Fold this protein.
Amino acid sequence: MTPQELVANVIAQKPAAIAKAISLIERGEHTAERSDTYDALFNLLFEAPFCSQVIGITGPPGAGKSTLVDRIIEHARADNKKVAVLAVDPSSPLTGGSILGDRVRMQRHALDSGVFIRSLANRGHLGGLSETTYQCIRVLEAAQFDFILVESIGIGQNEIEITHMVDTTVLVTIPGMGDYVQAMKAGVMEFGDILVINKCDLPGVGQVEKLLNEIAHDRAGPDDWLPPVVKITANNGEGIEGLMKNIHAHTRFAPEHQTRRSYERHLLDAMLQRAILKRFYQPLVATNAYQQLAAAIVERKRPLQDLWSLLLQ
Amino acid sequence: MSAPIRILLAKMGLDTHTIGVTVLAKGLRDAGFEVIFSGFKQTPEVVVASALQEDVDVVGISSLSGAHMRYIPHVLELMKEHGIDDKVVLVGGVIPQEDIATLEALGVDRVFTMGAEMQTMVDYIREAVAKKRGEGVVA
């Protein structure tokens, strides 16, 4: 398959092509020589238009993120919307291995041609996602899914990367996590667009609800989005309707993918930095002229000024 | 550095013997593989759709219920149909000697039965995936 064919098949929403493209993107960072196929896919990042609502689902381990994703898929499919899921789980820092188990909770949608589910290991990347998650989002957006759901690994106190690369962040907590919520006040709680209490069939809902409402009101200025606190029980589907209404309301409040546009600006800056390093810094450092001058400067035999002169040559 | 090996673990039908596949998942994780669980009591269709979307290198099917000849040929057929019969297919569990040759003739790469060592399976997977990917043995 030529690179053009692969990209065309992604745009034509062929599941096998989408799956291959994500693997290539994931693998791409590991290859010294980028292949033409990788380049063609990478270009998609800045070529395919914005056409998906990207929703991030994040929260501590065991909060019910995967079960909630399953319910959102169900709801979106009832509206005939196409849904893609990226579910990130941690890799072992010791062995690099991982068990990716999120998919099990969503498996009833596996045969639905309007649903695509992909498990990603974070492969040592810190922040709650994998290094190439945003590129994977863009591959799925090129395939024109209406919703792209991104499920983070179970987060601790400060893993907020997901909030930069999605349109709406849903932060999931559960009753009995009052202390956790307190500790999160300066951290992930400052970023969730929608604050969800899952497992509302458990005792202790009122306490968490009160805390979340306080946090939401502390955060919001007069023209800002006031993060709603939504009570659900993903296990039996209770409250999902209300959550979806809030997700749509947030889309109307922030319609132009501004968060993702800023993130892409940041990505471009980082790419430029890497390109400059490769094109200018690495060749210069490898020269004898630099090596000798650097040694001489450290030995106080030549002035630092000579380094700036060398740079301008 | 090579990308980590991705392997889908599957159990189909009314097979409730889940301990073997759970132990295997941990062993493969500790060998540095990315192990994707497709859930228990699944159908061949769901297993193949999962293998396709996850773009795994290996499909590992555990069967201890005696229904392997009912499900595994169907998985192999569906993989061919979806153009993903290039993956390594492994079977593990209680498989009578006389069925092993049949399964291998149908396209299963290797059958591991009771008493197979974790290291034997890990080594086999590394070698088989390296061959398919056309590279040296994947760490």
Notes: Chain A has a mean pLDDT of 91. The radius of gyration of chain A is 23 Å. The domain at 48-254 of chain A is CATH 3.40.50.300 (Rossmann fold). The interface with chain B takes residues 15-16, 18-20, 22-23, 26-27, 30, 91-92, 95-101, 103-104, 107, 110-111, 116-119, 121, 123 of chain A (CB under 8 Å).
